Structures are given as C-alpha cells and as structure tokens.
Write the structure tokens for this entry.
Amino acid sequence: MLLEVKNLKTSFNTSRGKVRTVRNVSFSLREGEILGLVGESGCGKSVTSLSIMGLVPKPEGIIEGGEIIFEGTDLLKLSEKEMCKIRGNKIAMIYQEPMTALNPVFTIEEQISEVIKIHEKVKGKVVRERVIELLNLVQIPDSEKCLKRYPHELSGGMRQRVVIAMALACSPQILIADEPTTALDVTIQAEIIEVLKDISKKMKMAIIFITHDLDVIAEIADRVVVMYGGKIVEEAYVNNFFDNPLHPYSKGLMLSRTDNINHGGRLFSIQGMVPSPYNMPRGCAFNPRCEKCKEMCKLKTPELVGLRENHKVRCWLYRENEV
C-alpha cells in the first residue's frame, strides 16, 4: 500500500473553542489509483489533504492523533525539514484556485523552475528543457512561448494546467488535487480531467481527487470515499457506488445531480443544513437531515463496517439489517 491514513484526528483552536474538523478518518491509496474524496463544503476533505501534506495552519491547527503512513514512514512523526523533502517532491498538491496558487509577478518559467531547482538541484538549460517538457505533458500549446508569460496573460484553463505542471515537476508518487476543476467551464473541466487521467496512467501516479461533484468522480475515480461531518460515511469502488449507494447521505447526493431533474423542473436537495462544527449533533452527524433517522441514530455514532466486498458504510440501518 502506498499511503495509509489511520484514525486521523485534526482540530482547530478558535475564539469559540475547539473545532474537531477531521474525526477518526481512515483510508488507503494504492500505486496508480485515483481515489475520489467527496462531500459538501465543511465536511473535512481539504483539511484531510492538508494534514497529509503537513500544511495544517499552526498554531491554531492541531493533529491530535492517528497515523499517515507513506512508504512505511509515519509522516506525522517527521520534522518540518524532513517533510520538506517529501512535500512537492514525493507528494504534491494542486490547489483550488490557480490565480492565487501562482505568483503574479513571476513568469511561468520562473515559477516551475523554482520547484525543480529546490528538489532536483539542477541548473540552466536542463531546467528550461524540463519546464518545456512539463508544459507539453499538460498539453499547453506553444509551450516555449508560454515560458515568458505571466499568470494574468493566460486563461483559467491554461493557469490550471500550469499549476498541474508545477505539481508534476518532480514526478511525485502521489498527487492531491483539491477541487482543481471547480472554477472552470464544463469543456475545460473535461480536458483537465483527461489530462490528469492520462498523466496518472503514464507515470503510475496515485491521485487523491477532492470534489463535491459526483459527475466528476464518475469520470475520473477508481474508488470513492464520502465524507460528512468530519467522518467517512461510505467507501466503495466507483461502479459499485454509482450502481448502489448505501448511506442516506450518499443517496441524497446522487439524487441531487442535474441529470435527475424531474418533470416539474425541480432539482432534488437534501433537507436541512450542514451542521455547525461548533455544535455537532450527538450520534450520527447526518441524523437531523436523514429521512430514515431512528432513535439509535441520535444516541450513538455507528462504526464504518464492510457490508459487502470492498463496500463500507457508516449507518445504523445496515447494522440492524433493516434495509
């Protein structure tokens, strides 16, 4: 196994008290696999990825427990100096908004070159050739002309490709893509997804793809992990998940897709609101919004259990064999 996250707990100290954002999250990632991490805003997806990268804001953010095992080493036990050798080199990240991820006063060549020089200790013509190679890899046309351009001179789709090129500069084993297609139109979004799939296949690179869009997951992922209230509520291979989602929250997400608009022209929505992290419900965090909520759901949080091969769910309905 390339990466194993075990019982990860990440919290933030705020003026209103401690907020537990990631609560006992566990999952694994194999070489060359694309894992989709799905859920509404505030469910803990991005904080999970920042925990893996060692980028949880300090001193407010605290990883209170768990393990993140990469190539047999627990990343949580490494010093910042040791993490710097892994971050951007063996594990890289694509951030949500390319305009904020890129520095507006440096050219595209300068920004990608910096990553290569830090981790690979090469200079001059070798670096330039490597930058051109990366821009070609992410299918940027006229890559040599792009070198001297600044971020504001590129379209949103081209900027996102540059950010991907930066992340791939050192041929990482794991790429974390945090909603990399959210701000793009559907056509460019599809192109970026194909670029990532192609790169993953060519480089045998594993990807953790974070999104709230199930249609994107259907296109790119091998497996899917659904998060809610800082916990994993369902995990399955993508085909099994789309054929038969088990958790009531997962079913609600599936019904909320645009291709499920009914004849009256109304789009289904899950009732209620995402719970405040300052006032998380007792028991299952989804119980105030769940149409199948029972008394047990309000008292105790169910465990994540395997209901069938490679399909896990966290729900009392299945624990009691009632559905």
About this structure: The chain has a mean pLDDT of 91.
